[in-house]
Specification:
Blueprint (H helix, E strand, L loop, with lengths): L8 E6 L3 H12 L4 E7 L2 H11 L3 E5 L7 H11 L4 E6 L6 H7 L4 E4 L3 H17 L1
Parallel strand pairs: 1-2, 1-3, 3-4, 4-5
Length: 131
């Protein structure tokens, strides 16, 4: 019988809140097929780690000091188009989801619904990689 190696999706988490990064780390540790390879607290750190680690997926906070999540997403997608980005935000502003997609994000999750919506977003991401 031939065994095939399981390919985990390499995830980079970006958020200026250490508590929220811990939540994302715990989420990835308990979610099959996903492996957290790095975490950063700013958009600038996100760019450096994206270049160094080449994750499959970035979970990006929207509002951070310095380079915000939209700017970092746009930069990552321009430099590394193979890396997908999901914006995660606490904001509930009309039209925000569209702006996130225009910056290059493949999806959008509200922090208040993280545990309800992120599994579905990740399932869609995995499905899109298989096709």
């Amino acid at each position: 019988m031939v065994q095939t190696a399981v390919r985990h999706t390499r995830v980079l988490a970006i958020d200026d809140s250490p508590e929220f990064l811990s939540s994302l780390r715990a989420f990835c540790e308990t979610t099959p097929d996903f492996c957290l390879v790095g975490a950063a607290r700013s958009g600038d750190e996100a760019l450096a780690l994206a270049q160094e680690l080449r994750p499959d997926l970035v979970l990006m906070d929207l509002q951070m000091t310095g380079m915000n999540g939209l700017e970092a997403t746009s930069e990552i997608r321009q430099r590394f188009p193979e890396i997908a980005v999901v914006i995660i935000t606490a904001h509930e502003i009309p039209g925000l989801q569209q702006v996130c997609h225009e910056s290059g994000a493949c999806d959008f999750v509200k922090k208040s619904r993280l545990y309800q919506d992120l599994p579905e977003v990740l399932a869609r991401f995995l499905s899109s990689r298989r096709t």
